[in-house]
Amino acid sequence: MKATVYKGNKTFSVIEKEIEAPEKGEVRIKVAYSGVCGTDVHIYHGMMDKRVAMPQTIGHEMSGIIDAVGEGVEGYAVGDKVVVRPLDDRLVKASDKGFNHICEDLKFIGIDSPGSMQQYWNVPAFVLHKLKAETDLKLAALIEPLSVATHDVRRSGLVAGETAVVLGGGPIGLLVAMVAKEVGANVIVSEVNEKRIAKAQSMGLHAVNPTKVDLVEYVKEQTDNRRADVVFEVAGVQPALDIMCEVAGIRGRILMVAIHGEKKPVDLFKFFWKELSLIGARVYEKEDYEKSIDLITKNELPFEDMITDVQPLSNIQQVFENIDNNPDGMKVLMDCQQ
Ligand SMILES: NC(=O)c1ccc[n+]([C@@H]2O[C@H](COP(=O)([O-])OP(=O)(O)OC[C@H]3O[C@@H](n4cnc5c(N)ncnc54)[C@H](O)[C@@H]3O)[C@@H](O)[C@H]2O)c1
Ligand SMILES: [Zn+2]
């Protein structure tokens, strides 16, 4: 079988290796597609070299078909279409209060252990979610990032008729916007990259450029001065932190989706003044996956537009080099059988 490995120093190799039988409690998946995530790009840039045991197969946004079932696995059979929720919570403790998805000793599969950018992938059965026979496997590779979005929207408590502002129209921001719109909210995406604005608009989303319009005034006009009920910070930059407290209205809820690697200034006075709430949101829980599987299987949202390229596994080096040279693309999928 073919597998890709990250070797450090912005380098991937494609290797040939033996297909392994699944161990007790595991299944072997014939991987269909594996999406490239921002985290994979961070790994490629060497930013996670202390955490990734090189040479390592990375990747966690995938879809596939069960190819072999190990001893003791129940509820799954060869031929089942599945996705993986790449959270290894085996070290969960009572002090994690049942929040396994953010437990202190959580291991992320595809970073801390081998991932999906290979032809066959052995995983413990507890990470599996079964798809429907009719679920499209290409779209199903979006279920992992979509579950970030379904988790964020669920955590926000967003309801129909409310206004949500999404700061950042990258892959995660657009998925959040789609899910928020599906809830029945009025959604405004703020994005600085004109190509990504055009992409969002082509997907039927309402997107504006905060360097060209005064975002706060714009949102006030759209909401009869009420401003946003919910703000999703999905840009990860200081200007977004500056505007999130401005664009949120009275009792607004701000969802911190972006990963800020260092401490940054935030206008805490606004939290007092408008009784704002700041809500953290990290990865997903089982129910977020089930919601995403349902959305992808129904396929009533413009998911297909999110996939801007599909490349054979053997092109992995080129794929990552291209992502570096082109910040406009959305989701690139690796075809893991090519
Ligand atoms: N909470 C989680 O579990 C989780 C999961 C996945 C990703 N993330 C984080 O979510 C964030 C978004 O992920 P992504 O893959 O979409 O990243 P991305 O970098 O592709 O998207 C960020 C977008 O923000 C835009 N932007 C930059 N400055 C802006 C500004 N001032 N106003 C509005 N938009 C601006 C960029 O042009 C870009 O399109 C990242 O920080 C990522 O690490 C969090
Ligand atoms: Zn991801």
From TrEMBL:
Keywords annotated in UniProt = Metal-binding, Oxidoreductase, Zinc
Query: Any idea where the Enoyl reductase (ER) domain is?
Result: 8-334
Which is one GO molecular function term here?
Answer: zinc ion binding
Q: What PROSITE patterns does the record tag this protein with?
A: ADH_ZINC (PS00059)
User: According to the UniProt record, what class of enzyme is this?
Assistant: oxidoreductase
Q: Matching Pfam families, A to Z?
A: ADH_N, ADH_zinc_N
**EC number, UniProt record:** 1.1.1.-
Which InterPro entries does the UniProt entry name for this protein?
Answer: ADH-like_C, ADH-like_N, ADH_Zn_CS, ER, GroES-like_sf, NAD(P)-bd_dom_sf, Zn_alcohol_dh
Report which superkingdom the organism of origin falls in. Answer: Bacteria
The prosthetic group or cofactor this protein requires is: Zn(2+)
Similarity annotation: Belongs to the zinc-containing alcohol dehydrogenase family.
Name the record gives this protein = Long chain dehydrogenase/reductase
Natural source organism: Zobellia galactanivorans (strain DSM 12802 / CCUG 47099 / CIP 106680 / NCIMB 13871 / Dsij)
What's the source species' lineage?
Bacteria, Pseudomonadati, Bacteroidota, Flavobacteriia, Flavobacteriales
